[in-house]
Structure formats: C-alpha cells, structure tokens
Amino acid sequence: MVTALHSRWARLPRDARDTFFMLGLIAWTVAPHLARLPLGVGALCLSVLAWRAMLAWREAALPGRGPLLAVLLLAAALTWWDQRTLLGREAGITLLVVLMALKTLELRARRDALVVFFLGFFLVLTQFLYSQSLLSAAAMLLSVWGWLTALTLAHMPAGRPPLHEAAGTALRAALLGLPVMLALFLLFPRIPPLWGLPGEGARTGLSDHLRLGDVAELAQDDSVALRLRFEGPALPLSQLYLRGPVLSRYDGQSWQADPWPRRPPPPQPGPIAPSQSAAGLRYQMTLEPLRIAWLPLLDYATTPPRAEPPLDGLRAPDDDSLQWRLRSPLGERTRLAAVAASQRPAAGPLSRWDRLQLTSLPPGLHPRTRAWARTLAAQPGLLHADARTLTQAVLQHLRTDGYAYTLSPGPYEGDAIDEFWMDRKLGFCEHYASAFVVVMRSLGVPARIVTGYQGADPAPVDGYWVVRQTNAHAWAEYWQDGQGWLRADPTAAVAPDRVLRSSALRPAPGLVMGTLDSVSPGLRLQLRRWLETWDNRWNQWVLGYGRQQQFQLLRDWGWPEVDTTALARLLVLCLSALGLAGAAWAWWDGRRQPAWPRLQRRLARRLARWDVSLAPADSPAALARRLAERHGEKVAPMVAALLALQRQRYAPDPTPATLSTWWRTFVAAERRCAPLRRP
Asked: In this predicted structure, what is the pLDDT of residue 116?
C-alpha cells in the first residue's frame, strides 16, 4: 500500500503537490489557535482543510460559491453561539481562521493564493497576542519561513523550482534582511503601547475580592507568575511573601479590598533617606501580565520600583495596607527593580472608626464560630490577653485539633466558615485565612486578609527564583497595639511544609507528564527547568529589551548624548550604512556575474579582434559558424567554446554563475589561439 501511495504521489501534478504543502503550512499556523477556538469551529476548519486535500488528491474540481457560503454562515453561527458577538479579538481571530480555511477552496487565480499567503502572515502575528514565549516564537518563525517559501513558489514558473530550492531562496532572502531587522530591534525607539492586551493564560487569581474556591482554581495552574532575582543574599523561602491586594471589607460571602484609603498615612519624620533605602533588600523582578491593578511586591516596599516599560499610573500606598496600585491591569510582561525595607514602616495608632470597621462581622452569620471564640477568650490566662497572645492560642488550636491542608476539600454549603471551623476542618490557604480573620474579629482584634504569593521553586533557574501560580497564597494580619499590623499565616500552623519549604500542593500530572515520570522520575522536572531557563533568557534579552537597555547600549558605544533623539540618529545612520552596503554589493555582484547582455558586449570586443562582428540577434552558434568560416581550424577551441555556450543558453536552467565560468573558459581558449591570429 505504501508503494501504491508513493506511486500515486509521484503521478500528481506539481500544483497539486504545492497545494498539499500549503495545506500543511496552514494547519501548522492554525494549530496554536485550535485550543482557543470554539470546538465546533475548530472541527469545521480541519474538515475544510481535509476536504481540500481530498480534492487535490483526486484532482477534482473546486466547489461552487453555494457550499462555501453555507460553511461560512455555519462558522459565523458557531462563533456567535460561543462568543455572543462577531466583534472583538476572540471572534475576529476565529473568523480569520475560518476565512483562511475557506479560501483554500477557491484557489482559481494567483491573486487568491496571494490572499491566502497574507492571511497566513497575519495569523502568525495574532499568535503573539496570546503567547510570546520562546517556543511560540520558534514555531511562528518556522511558519514565516514556510509562507516565504510559498510566496516564492507563486512567483516562479509553474512546476519550478523544486520545493527545497524555493525554501533555500526564501531563507537566503530572510537572512539578507537580518541586519536591518537587528538594527531596528536594537535602536528603534520603544513607544509605550496604546493599550494592553493581557494574555489568555495570564491569570493570577488575585483580585479585589475573595470567595472560597477562587484560589483553589489558581493553585492548579502551574504556569510562571513572576521571576525574582536578589542583588545580594536571597530571602529564605519561608520569608518570601509577595504582597498583593489587602482585603478588609466582608459581607458574609466574599472579602473585598477597600476602594478608597481608610485614612491618610500617619505622620512621618520625613522622606526615606537614600542611605536608608540602600540598606533595604534590593531585587529585580519580571512580572507576567496580570489581570489586577496591583503589583505583588515583597513586604515591605517603601520606594517606587523602576520599571521597563514604565508602569501606567503607579500609585504609592496611601494608607497602612502598603498596596502599590496601577491605573489599569498590567497588560504586558514587565521588568522592574525594587527595594524592600527590612522592617515595616512605623504606623500611627488605629482610629476608632478603623477599629470598628476591622472588627465588624455581618450580623447573624457564623454563630458557632463566634461562640467558639467567646469560649476561647473565657479560658484562664486569656481573659485580658493582648492580640499576640490570642493569635498564638488560635494557631495552637489549628495545630492540635485535626485540621488538614488539601486542594480538594469539596464544596462548602450554607455557612462555610462554621462548617469549615467546627466540622470538616479541611481546606487550603483561603479557608484558613478567612476563618482565622473571622475568629480574630470575634475576639475583638482588628484583622484582615492579605493575598499574594508565598515561596518559590526550591532552586533558582538561571539565577532567578521562579514564583508560580501554585505559589498564590492568602494569609492574615492582625493589629497589635504599640506595634501595628503583624503577619499571621494560619496555613503554616497546619501545613508547615507549604510555607517553610515552599512545598505547594500540586495537581496530579496528566497522561504525557505521567508517562515521562514513569520512564524517568526526574525527567519532567529537568525538561521543564531547561525550557524555563531558555524562556527566561528570551524574556530578559529579547522581550525585556527596552528603552533603558537601549540607552545603556549607546553609553557602552561611547555615544555623547543618550536620549530618544540619539537613538533615532543612530538608527538612521545604521540603515543608511546598510543601504549603501547593499547597493555596493549589488553593483559588485552584477560586475562579478556577467549576464547575457553584458556577456554580449564583452564577446563583441573579443571577436572584433578576429574580424567578426556581433549583432544583438546573433546566437552563439551563428558566431561560431562565422568565426570558423573566416579562420578555419586554427580557432577550433574558440568555436567549441561558442557551441558550448549555445547549448548552455538554451539549457533548462542557465545561471549567471555558469555564464561566468564559461567566460573564463572562452578567454583561455582565445589565448591559445592568439599566436595564430593574423596581424
């Protein structure tokens, strides 16, 4: 059967084989989008491509406009059913994929093929709206090479050249443009985006509200949230807390962040001096796109971070929550350098209004937990205890009363706090943080929830600590008179490994990852570490290359004035130099490789020495005949060379390099005949 298929393939006309190449290229370009397309639309596109392949295999006629219109309407209906709109990014890319597939069914002219080619280039660009990773860039680079090859084939005579030669031509053309691309990448001024497009997979799960179950869904996402590198000794993983939204408003169902600061910041003796800032913990961070308008920074960031690209509307903490807010969610990968203070800034006394708000609970809710809190406060030694002592008593209860940390506690119905605290005692960080704050408020202690990230991978990757979505965490803060807000992590009391060793619970691996683990227990982690190392370098060296790196490059080159104008001048200078170099190369290449018109002029000068004239319409065979008639056998080498040129001129594929070789042969033949020439 394989022999029959190979024989059938060899009998196919060249345009049919080129169609199969284009269909494979379309499938490769569209494949990354299939996971985001509606299931019905994806199946429809693959069916259309398979239909077109069957028509090419059978050399059958293309369908009429009726079936195409029916398929288009079906795809639009499926898109509307899934997206509830035909506008916007998701719906637009879905319809673009459908149009690409349908266009293959009406390739009746070269202009139809050109439409497919440029749709393919556009689809390559849309992939970077979702992912800009190294693997995505490599896959799309291969797609660009394929589309350049298809474009080369479309401008060649039918059936020529072979596919591998067209691919080589496309690759050479791309390499010739590489210097211009590098100049533009290094020197083109970086312009801030007009809007941000957060990636589909860029989720932190951290927002201005928290409900039981939200962080559990995030904990199963093993993607990278951020990378962290310390300029000095690294923090222990147990102390690596990245502070996000602080949730203090509670309505009985969800916790929310205060939309406005509760009070102005306490009076300070003055701004932080540079010497004090320098004494803090310095670090660099690469943040993936976030869907929240908060920056998760190390406790406690007291000076604005330096970011590339600049952060839009960064707002310093304006209350005692120490939250760094943005005007809008972070929509692109961002590098920043920050300083964390060694201790929390001093705070003034808690106002009566703040104390009332931070100890309030919805009336009538959590009666069993409140009753338990009153029983605890009535124990000997705790009647007039301070907040720290009460906190230690609650944490000791968590350690000794059978509580367990799990990612799958099951649904909580009814009064979730009472059911968790008194009955099931199963949950993850948000269960413990929520219940702990409710208990502390029941004891009259101001308390609130802090969400963010805790810990990182056990070992750094390429010098960076990798913080994943599985490191998303929720902990608590309580108010101690005379000291201010203090951190309490009830999860650490139940599952010390989660905090002390940063051992977050992870979901079971899938089929492929499980197979890798069965073959080699550490192979999956080694592959992931290797891929993330190169992905991090790609992020730092390519995606993270911004204005500050451009300015530093100019300083390294000794440029006197470093600004955007200097970048533009240097870019124009480099492009002009590249243009002159290209023009010089084209002139030299034209002189080095004589084409037929130039060869005629050279040949005319040579043959004039032998009293033979050359007219523009003369063929090499006519010149050979005229030369032999005039000089006979003594010019036989020259006649043979001219006849060889005649055969070469009408060969299937003459090239300039072959003409250059022939010219050297003819000059050598003339030199042998020169002593016999009449004076």
From this structure: 82
254 and 209 in contact (C-beta within 8 Å)?
yes
Torsional class of 379: left (φ above 0), alpha (ψ -120 to 50), beta (otherwise): beta
Say if residues 388 and 338 touch (Cβ distance below 8 Å).
no
Return the active site residues: 429, 473, 489
Is pTM, for the whole model, over 0.85? no
For 626-645, how does the pLDDT look when each residue is reduced to its tens digit (9 = 90+)? 888 888 888 888 888 888 88
Q: What single-letter amino acid sits at 12?
A: L
Alpha carbons 404 and 424: distance in angstroms, whole number = 9
Residue whose C-alpha is closest to residue 386's, from 486, 319, 491, 248? 486
User: What is the band of 200 on the pLDDT scale with cuts at 50, 70, 90?
Assistant: very low
Element (H, E) at 368: helix 367-377
**Separation of alpha carbons 46 and 28, rounded Å:** 11
Residue reference for tokens 């439409």: 115
For the chain, the straight-line distance linking the first and the last C-alpha, in angstroms and rounded, comes to 74
Q: Rounded to whole angstroms, how far apart are CA atoms 87 and 91?
A: 6
636 or 159: which carries more pLDDT confidence? 636
Closest by alpha carbon to 486, among 520, 527, 436?
A: 436
Note whether 174 and 151 are within 8 A (CB): no
Tokens 């023009």 -> residue: 583
User: What HEC string does 23-66 produce?
Assistant: HHHHHHHHHHHHCCCCHHHHHHHHHHHHHHHHHHHHCCCCCCHH
Residue type, 39: L
Which of the pair, 300 or 444, is modelled with greater confidence?
A: 444
Name the token pair of 56: 């090419």
Mean pLDDT of the chain: 77
User: CA-based diameter of the chain, in Å?
Assistant: 133
Residue 517: other Cβ atoms inside 10 A: 14
Alpha-carbon distance of 577 to 585, in angstroms, equals 12
Least confident window among 159-163, 205-209, 453-457? 205-209
Q: How far apart are CA 395 and CA 398, in angstroms?
A: 5
DSSP string, 601-651: HHHHHHHHTTT----TT--HHHHHHHHHHHHGGGGHHHHHHHHHHHHHHTS
How remote is the C-alpha of 96 from its chain's centroid?
A: 21
Contact 430, 212 (CB under 8 A): yes
What element of type H or E holds 250? strand 241-250
Predicted local confidence at residue 390, as pLDDT: 92
| Segment 458-510, tens digit of pLDDT | 888 778 888 888 788 889 999 998 888 899 999 888 888 766 555 555 555 55
pLDDT of residue 280: 76
- The answer to whether 331 and 289 are in contact (CB under 8 A) is yes
Identify the H or E element spanning 335. Answer: strand 334-340
